[in-house]
Design brief:
By secondary structure, the protein is α+β, with helices and mostly antiparallel strands. The chain has 15 helices and 21 strands. Strands 15, 16, 17, 18, 19, 20 and 21 form a seven-stranded mixed β-sheet that branches. A five-stranded antiparallel β-sheet has the order 2-1-5-4-3.
């Protein structure tokens, strides 16, 4: 037995990794090499004993991991129990330092669940945490910071990032304790409330929402402190059950933010709002389909432009009309606004321009000496640098005199920042001395041509 023990000790001492032989019942070290004695022998017996006692078949080989917190080191251990020469059950354990691999693994895991730019948990982490939700009183407080892109363009991206971090730091300090902020998309954020009363969540939401009525002060690169206003869209969603998938969480947040951005006030998202949102999404889908499908349901109506002094017609204004299939007429302000948000306003305006000029020439109005055709364009289009080129192509196609075309900007719309100066000057000169009276259907125009000078 002694010779066998010596041979076993020699075998253990030849191994570079910490290796030991331990009595399973008492935890006594029978043999251990120098690497084991230097690093882990003092703290290891109970960990080996606990691991092997938990295994059903202690005579098999098992690999397990352990972190020795006193030295912040991870070991991957391979243990195997067998009968010693005196019939005791012993455990042979070999350990490998896997700290570097463990740190890399933890870093990868962290990056998978966190937004690198702001060091916040991301949408995947929100899903993982939402899988653990139980009972009632769980809410997503969703919000979106507006105008950051404008600030990035006006100043620089670094300042925009500093402002965003400042805002989120304030939100984090003024939300209720223990609630985590997640960054779900580039500018969409969620605060998860667990086991809370709805009133508590709404008060927290209102406190955050009202803060955005005041400016945020930030230091520019020049050292000057600047007050900047940004807006916020916000909605609260009750979460009554654990999340079933990441896509379901993402869809829920997108629904809330889609409605909040459209309504532009703090909302409590419920079944009624969900129904309204579904209706609006259907409306958007119908509008997109009709515009892209040869302007299905669209037509023009006209209203006269009358000279106040002579009370004579000097032109007409073309107005777009849409009969939504299956629903009927839609107010122009409604579908124009949606066309702008969907990025389809240019297609709609170009069709109006083509159709109006075509009908005017069909009625011979373009031959009238003092005739003016007025067409409204969206303020958004003032940012299109090729707007004049598009209009010129239509005029050339129909050989329509440019002096008889007037472009108007919708009165109930805000003109965007920094529009082309020549267009603004043109608008100011065109709209003098005319006013608008009641709309006239297109088919009636042909019967009223004799009223033109």
């Amino acid at each position: 037995m002694r010779e066998s023990t010596e041979i076993f000790a020699e075998f253990i001492n030849l191994k570079e990794q910490p290796t030991c032989l331990m009595d399973l019942e008492t935890g006594e070290f029978l043999l251990a090499n120098e690497a084991c004695k230097r690093k882990i022998m003092e703290h290891f017996p109970q960990k080996i004993k606990k691991q092997m006692k938990a295994e059903k078949n202690q005579k098999k080989s098992y690999t397990w991991e352990v972190c020795l917190s006193y030295e912040s080191v991870w070991y991957s251990c391979t243990s195997r129990g067998f009968s010693w020469f005196d019939e005791r059950t012993v455990v042979l354990t070999t350990c490998e330092d896997v700290t570097a691999a463990k740190i890399a693994e933890e870093r990868i895991h962290y990056l998978a669940y966190h937004d690198k730019r702001l060091d916040l948990p991301n949408g995947v982490k929100l899903y993982e945490d939402s899988r653990e939700l139980t009972g009632v009183g769980n809410f997503y407080l969703c919000f979106n910071i507006q105008d950051l892109r404008k600030i990035n363009n006006l100043y620089d991206r670094k300042l925009g990032d500093r402002l965003l971090k400042q805002i989120l730091a304030w939100v984090n300090a003024n939300k209720d304790t223990g609630k985590q902020i997640y960054r779900v998309e580039s500018s969409d954020f969620v605060i998860l409330f667990e086991n809370c009363e709805r009133g508590e969540v709404m008060r927290a939401a209102m406190r955050i929402y009202n803060r955005f009525e005041r400016p945020w002060e930030i230091e520019l690169a020049s050292g000057v402190r600047k007050e900047l206003y940004v807006g916020i869209h916000m909605g609260v969603l009750g979460v009554g059950y654990p999340a079933t998938s990441y896509e379901a969480v993402q869809t829920s947040v997108e629904k809330v933010m889609s409605y909040a951005r459209h309504e532009n006030y703090l909302i409590l998202f419920d079944e009624e709002i969900d129904t309204k949102l579904s209706e609006r999404l259907k409306f958007e889908a119908d509008l997109r389909r009709c515009i892209l499908n040869d302007m299905e349901g669209f037509s023009l109506i006209y209203q006269p432009i009358v000279e106040a002094a002579s009370e004579r017609w000097i032109g007409i204004e073309a107005l777009c009309h849409w009969e939504r299939p299956g629903y009927g007429p839609v107010p122009s302000a409604m579908f124009v606004q949606e066309a702008e948000s969907l990025g389809l306003i240019s297609l709609l305006t170009e069709w109006v321009l083509h159709e109006a000029i075509r009908q005017v020439q069909e009625w011979g109005l373009d031959k009238k000496r003092r005739f003016i055709l007025n067409i409204n364009i969206s303020p958004i289009q003032l940012q299109e640098r090729d707007l004049s080129i598009k209009i010129g192509r239509v005029l050339n196609r129909y050989n329509f005199p440019s002096r008889k075309l007037r472009l108007g900007i919708s009165e109930n719309q805000e003109v965007p920042i920094d529009p082309p100066v020549d267009i603004i000057k043109t608008e100011r000169s065109l709209m003098k001395g005319v006013y608008f009276s009641k709309p006239v259907q297109a088919e009636v125009m042909g019967e009223s041509l004799e009223k033109f000078a």
